[in-house]
Structures are given as structure tokens and as C-alpha cells.
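## retry 2 of 3
previous attempt timed out at serialization; input unchanged, resubmitting
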Amino acid sequence: MTAEVLVVFCDVGPRFGIGHLMRCLALAEEFSSRGAQVVVAADAPSVPFALEQVEARGFAHRPAPESVADHLAVLAQSSATHAVIDSYHLPPAVYAALADAVPTLALVDGDPAGRVAHVLVDQNIGAEDDTWPVAEGTTRLAGLDYSLMRTEILDRRPVRPREAESEPPRVFAFFGGTDAFGAGPVLTEAMVATGRPFDLRVVTPQPWARKVEAGPGQRIELISPTGLLADEVVAADLVLSAAGTSSWELLCLGAACAFVCVAENQVRSYERAIDSDLGLPLGMLEDLVAGETAGAVEVLGTALDDAAGRRALRRRGWLRVDGGGRARVADVFRDAGRSGPR
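## retry succeeded, writing output
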């Protein structure tokens, strides 16, 4: 029997962040656990932490291809049996060419926009209720039941939601591996403005241009991107996060989350997470940057005061994201036929 070889093509970089890579790595880990070899073709070296994540798993790395021919060449050189593609900028022609060559899975957020694959995965909250045009022969897997959790998340998922609280509350803030939109200092200033005591750790890839001074009883620590993200989340009483791909990991870990929407493509997920009572609303980052912070300060102040509310948030998130998504996706994808979607 021919060994399976999974090739992953995904956006990575200071402009894109590393969210695409991290969710692809979760599915790649599942394939690897079933005996497959994994090749990641992406610009991982542009973000050192991203390359570390690829290499730490023992996956092969190739430079990011550009043209259709380049993508097909990577498949041929790797003896690929399956391909995963997760990109906001690659043209539909790349997706079509890959799907003609091998069983292909595409990760999407909302409208597939003409991208074809044997399997489409939209792991966002409420996606199962959306109706988008997809190619004939395509299987669409949608909703949080198919959210892709990395092994480090599954290993740290508590057997039950955390009940203990710290005094003062321990807060962890993470806005993607690169914090591409600069949410860190803005939300830290909002935390300070609450006037409440807290112990805050903020992930930032580089020093901020402006210094944020802590108030009485407040402690702020800036830390570099870490492979121990799950440990930080599990230890925190409150987690501040962008409403992106890492949101579902936080819920799986049983985090009490306050979400900020940092980009237009997060609006739907942000609104649905808030409407489902799976997180607290900090609003749109562009509004906060413009000085409209009163709402976020009020939400954060209430969250810091309300230990029972934080416990309730942890329970809801932990129950909603069970960690089995990547296995469900892999089961479907491995059975996908070679008759390309049309």
C-alpha cells in the first residue's frame, strides 16, 4: 500500500499572520498520527515562530510556490496523495489544478468564492447554517463540530472546565502570532482604564511603539510568541483574543474569552460568538483605535469583577468545542474520491 503524503499549501507571513498555518497543522498532525508523511509548502521562514512549529513536528518544509505550475511541481516532487490549501490570496485556478491532481481539501471562511476541492471545511461558528454555491461532487463540512485542534490543545484540554480563580484575576491576551493589526497595546490601555487590579500577560512579537503604564494593583508583562500558548490559556481567568481562527482553540480549552474583531473577515464569527454567549464583546478594533473605548472598558471592568460570569463562560465554550473536529475531517477527507469536483 502506497504511503500517504499530505502536502499543505497555506498563507503565512507578517501580513497574513500564522492562523492559516496553525489550523492546517492540526489536520496535518491527525494525518501524521495515522502514518502519513507531511510536507508544508509555505513562507514559514518569514515568521520564525511559524517555521519552528513546522520543524518541531518533524514535517518537511518547502518554499511557498507561486504559479499553478509551481504548485503542481511540489505535488510531484513530494509524491503527494492528498493536498490541503488554506489561502485568502491564491487564485481559483490553483485550487482547480490541485483538485484535478489529487484529493484536495480547502479551508474557507464563508463564501468559497469559486474555489473548488473535494472537501471544503468552514470551521466557523454557525457555518452549518450558511448556504454557499459549491461545485458538484464537493463535500462541505461546516461549523464548530469540524474545528481543527492542534495536539497541544487536545493534550491541555481539561477534563472539566476550570473553577478556581486568581486574586487579582490573571488575564492572558493573544491576538495572533504576529498581532498584525496592533491590538495588543490598545486592549492593554483599555484594561488599565478599568482601574481594577489584574495580572496581565500579553503576547507580542516586538516591543510596542508606545509604553503602557500600569495603574495601582495592575501588572503588565509582554511575552514573545510562545509554543506554550495552551498552558497560558488554561492558567488564565480571562483571555482577550481576536475573533479569528484561534478562537475555537480557546473555547476547547475552556477559556473565558473577551473577543475583539480586528478585521473585516472576522465580523461574522465575532457576531455569532457574541450572539451565542460564547464570549464577551470588546467591539471593532478600528473603533477602539479611534478612541471609542468606553464600551470595551466597561465590559472588561465587569468581567474582572464577575468570577461567576467567567466560570459560566468557561463551561459554555468547553461544551461547545469538544476537540473531535480534526478526526471527523480526516475521516471524510481520506475517503474522498479522485473524481475532481466540478
